[in-house]
UniProtKB/TrEMBL annotation:
Residues 743-859 form the Response regulatory domain. InterPro entries: CheY-like_superfamily, GAF, GAF-like_dom_sf, HATPase_C_sf, HATPase_dom, His_kinase_dom, HisK_dim/P_dom, HisK_dim/P_sf. Residues 497-719 form the Histidine kinase domain. It catalyses: ATP + protein L-histidine = ADP + protein N-phospho-L-histidine. Residues 450-481 form a coiled coil. This is histidine kinase. Residues 22-95 form the PAS domain.
Length: 864
């Protein structure tokens, strides 16, 4: 490409190119606008570009020096529409305005759609001085339009498919209605004319080939349901709500059935109610089936499985059957086949029907006793029509028994009882009803026999049910404990991270105050403020220490302990702390197992529990510290979220105010407290929980409002020799005198902390190197083999933690000594079971004097 011309090579208005001292405001706006703009000069050969603004450069990817002097064709490429290019050329030649969209190419070869508006700028003499073009990247719009066109095409095809699907579904609906015996109906509300399909007529027991009027429909509805049905119709017409109702119908054969009607209101063009249209369904089998199920369920639940007296069982069964079948009378009587009598102790009667209690002679009502003796069921729909009863029909009508079912109950091959149904008027008994009567009679006969066997099984069933219930409750408690444990785990991770970051900040603050103390020995006023800052820093450090305890990220120094000996050693401290109003009782276990735990943290946890117990007994009370050996099996471990095995339990019990369940549920959560503001941080119990979990155990609260509280820690049993409760912490010493200087590498991503440690080490006379991350530390270790001491944070950026840096250092220099400084104990990186000789841990924030002393002690120690 030829060398790009300089704008000064063109005869342009100085204001246009910004060469004068007072650029025209319009020109300044064109240069500053975010809309890409160009100006070409048609008076020069090939109409070159003489001006572009920054937006045009941004859009195309070219520098201004690469654009000015070239024709706009350099933006075109293979995908540029030749017809669009021709139209632009014709417009330039005709000195007219043109607007179109064409495909252009950016400098990186990527295409974009450019909406171009190109127009002539005329001089005073009427000739064209320039062409002014505004550009707009409309690639996204084009893609969106293309997507819409494709979507419209898809939608159009979907509409066609949907219409076809509707047609198919309508045909299927008609076929399904026929297959499902669904009737279709329509009622003209003005004329009360009913149009009913064949299935609709069949639902009402009508001939499908004969007319079926609305008046006939009303007549078919059971008299007790007719008013409810008409009210439902009126409500639908008035409100437009769906018409849905089930009611009884009486069919021409005197059989009772049930239909389900559903319909909707249709309005005319003026919005007035015009039609009701819907479907009908014969639900007689469904209703009878449901009634059968409900009846048998009731008998099994309330009669057969509950009552012991045989006569009461028989009466209750007959009553339930009579109500279910809507008869006049139902009863159960003992039959004497020799005397041909039935003794009825008690029967059920519908309203207005007299009881038959007493002894009746079968021969007074017909000759069907002969059938009963053979064990045959006696059924007749109308006493006047049955040859066995027509001569005695009046006697049967007199006792409200024109229609009868007598179901014999036999034992040892002979009839012993009779389950009977009477109806005051003629009635056809359906096969479904007779089957139900037969089943109830059979179950009633078996009930007493089964009851005897059930009584034997009941005790076993009660026992099994109790075990299942207890197991279910235990599982529910375990599930609740698991959810609580998961919640505490999540909160612990959050608080641990916060405490770690806070400890780094506190380390910088504390160290800065300490450095100020060293330099303000002669200024008592300023030193007092520094002391106040240090005191506040220590309080904050204690707070983060408890947060780390809860989150199980505190630095522990576990030892094999005899818990009873530890408790005995600080019993006096507990007595002084709880005061004389609270009686302390210590109940040690005989032969208590050893545990592996940090003695200082265990003492702190127990002291926290004792202080909480004291606060729960404002008027005094009794506080008990009790230890015991516990072997926890599968069930107990599941409830406690522990591994089955042997544990030492340490329980602190008070007889104070106790806690409600909702408080117990949250008691271990950090910052949760029921104490008044300023009376507690809410971290005591959370620290206890965290310590127990970090030590491989668990903590649990058992409390009842008004009945006191017990908090137990469960620590795993440890096999090994005790190491005692631990050594007392030495008081902070003054910084050690500088001895022979060592070369020390300090690694910490917290700049302030790293700077403070390096400064005090240099004051001790050591040569100090600094690194902000693991890779930088390894590079310095490789470059300087004089490094004999490594101070490193545990959590470091750069892909390497402090432990990995220490391992790399030991690989290069096996004798190097390592001091880890950390805001919390990263278990994956620092475990006391894996620390090698010459490796120590110091928890942030720390006293600089203590830091110096630790470094000096490690340097003076023999061996790595």
């Amino acid at each position: 490409m030829a060398e790009s011309p300089n704008p000064s090579d063109f005869d342009l208005d100085p204001r246009l190119v910004g060469l004068d001292d007072g650029t025209d405001p319009f020109v300044a706006a064109v240069r500053a606008t975010r809309m890409p703009m160009v100006i070409t000069d048609p008076r020069q050969t090939d109409n070159p570009i003489v001006f572009v603004n920054a937006a045009f450069c941004t859009m195309t990817g070219y520098e201004r020096s690469e654009i000015v002097g070239r024709n706009c064709r350099f933006l075109q490429g293979p995908q540029t529409d030749p017809s669009a290019v021709r139209k632009i050329r014709e417009a330039v030649e005709a000195r007219t305005t043109i607007q179109l969209e064409l495909c252009n190419y950016r400098k990186d070869g990527k295409t974009f759609w450019n909406r171009l508006l190109l127009g002539p700028v005329r001089a005073k003499d009427g000739g064209v001085a320039y062409f002014f073009g505004s550009q707009m990247d409309v690639t996204a719009d084009r893609e969106r339009l293309s997507g819409l066109e494709q979507t419209n095409s898809v939608l159009a095809s979907q509409v066609v498919a949907r219409e076809r699907e509707i047609e198919i579904n309508e045909a299927r609906l008609l076929a399904a209605a026929d297959a499902g015996d669904l009737g279709i109906w329509q009622l003209d509300l003005d004329k009360l004319e009913l149009r009913a399909s064949k299935h609709c007529k069949t639902n009402f027991g009508r001939d499908p080939n004969l007319p079926f009027t609305y008046a006939q429909l009303l007549e078919a509805v059971h008299a007790d349901d007719r008013s409810r049905m008409q009210t439902a119709v009126q409500r639908t017409v008035a409100t437009g709500e769906v018409y849905r109702i089930d009611y009884r119908v009486l069919r021409p054969d005197d059989q009772q059935g049930w239909v389900r009607i559903q319909g909707r209101l249709e309005r005319d063009a003026d919005g007035r109610p015009a039609f009701l249209a819907g479907i009908s369904q014969d639900i007689t089998p469904e209703v009878l089936g449901r009634r059968r199920t409900e009846l048998l369920d009731y008998l099994d639940r309330e009669v057969y499985g509950v009552l012991d007296d045989a006569s009461e069982v028989a009466y209750r069964a007959a009553e339930a059957l009579g109500r279910a079948l809507d008869v006049s009378r139902a009863g159960y009587g003992t039959v004497d086949t020799q005397a041909e009598t039935i003794a009825i102790a008690r029967d059920w009667n519908a309203p207005g029907i007299q009881t038959l209690a007493g002894v009746l002679r079968f021969r007074d009502y017909g000759s069907y006793i002969e059938d009963l003796k053979r064990g045959d069921t006696v059924v007749f729909a109308d006493a006047f029509l049955d040859p066995r009863t027509r001569d005695n029909a009046d006697a049967l009508v007199a006792i409200s028994a024109q229609a009868v079912v007598n179901m014999p109950v036999s034992e040892a091959g002979g009839i012993v009882a009779l389950l009977y149904l009477n109806h005051a008027t003629a009635r056809n008994w359906t096969p479904h009803e007779l089957a139900l009567v037969r089943e109830v009679a059979l179950r009633t006969r078996q009930a007493v026999q089964r009851r005897r066997a059930e009584q034997d099984l009941q005790n076993l069933a009660d026992s099994l049910e109790r075990q299942v219930r207890e197991r279910t409750q235990e599982l529910m408690r375990s599930e609740a404990a698991l959810r609580q444990s998961q919640k505490m785990e999540a909160v612990g991770q959050l608080t641990g991270g916060l405490a770690h970051d806070f400890n780094n900040l506190l380390g910088a603050i504390s160290g800065s105050f300490e450095m100020l103390q060293r330099r303000l020995k002669g200024d008592a006023a300023l030193a007092r403020y520094v002391d106040m800052g240090q005191a506040a820093t220590k309080r904050a450090a204690a707070l983060t220490h408890r947060l780390l305890a809860f989150s199980r990220q505190q630095t522990l120094e576990p030892r094999v302990l005899q818990v009873d000996s530890l408790i005995e050693g600080f019993e006096d401290l507990v007595r002084r702390t709880i005061g004389p109003q609270v009686a302390l009782e210590v109940a040690p276990a005989n032969g208590l197992w050893q545990v592996l735990a940090d003695p200082g943290q265990l003492e702190s946890a127990l002291l926290n529990l004792c202080i909480n117990a004291r606060d729960a007994m404002p008027n005094g009370g009794r506080l008990t510290i009790e230890t015991a050996n516990r072997t926890i099996g599968e069930e107990g471990a599941l409830a406690l979220q522990l591994t089955p095995g042997q544990y030492v339990s340490i329980c602190v019990t008070d007889n104070g105010t106790g806690m409600p369940e909702d408080v117990v549920e949250h008691a271990f959560e950090p910052f949760f407290t029921t104490k008044p503001i300023g009376a507690g941080t809410g971290l005591g119990l959370s620290m206890v929980y965290g310590f127990a979990r970090q030590s491989g155990g668990q903590a649990r609260i058992h409390s009842k409002l008004g009945a006191g509280t017990t908090v137990c820690m469960y620590l795993p049993r440890h096999e090994g020799e005790p190491t005692g409760p631990g050594e007392s912490i030495a008081p902070t010493k003054a910084p050690p005198d500088a001895g022979p200087g060592a070369t020390i590498l300090v690694v910490d991503d917290e700049h302030a902390v790293r700077t403070l440690m390096a400064e005090v080490l240099r004051e001790m006379g050591h040569s100090v190197l600094e690194a902000a991350d693991g890779p930088d530390a390894v590079r310095q270790l490789q470059a300087d083999l004089r490094i004999s001491f490594l101070v490193t944070d545990v959590g470091l950026p750069g892909g390497m933690n402090g432990r990995q840096v220490a391992e790399a250092a030991r690989t290069m220099q096996p004798a190097i000594k390592v001091l880890f400084v950390t805001g919390y104990a990263d278990h994956s990186a620092l475990s006391h079971t894996h620390l090698l000789n010459g490796m120590h841990v110091l928890t942030k924030p720390f006293d600089l004097n203590a830091f110096c002393q630790r470094v000096q002690d490690m340097i003076e120690a023999t061996g790595p």
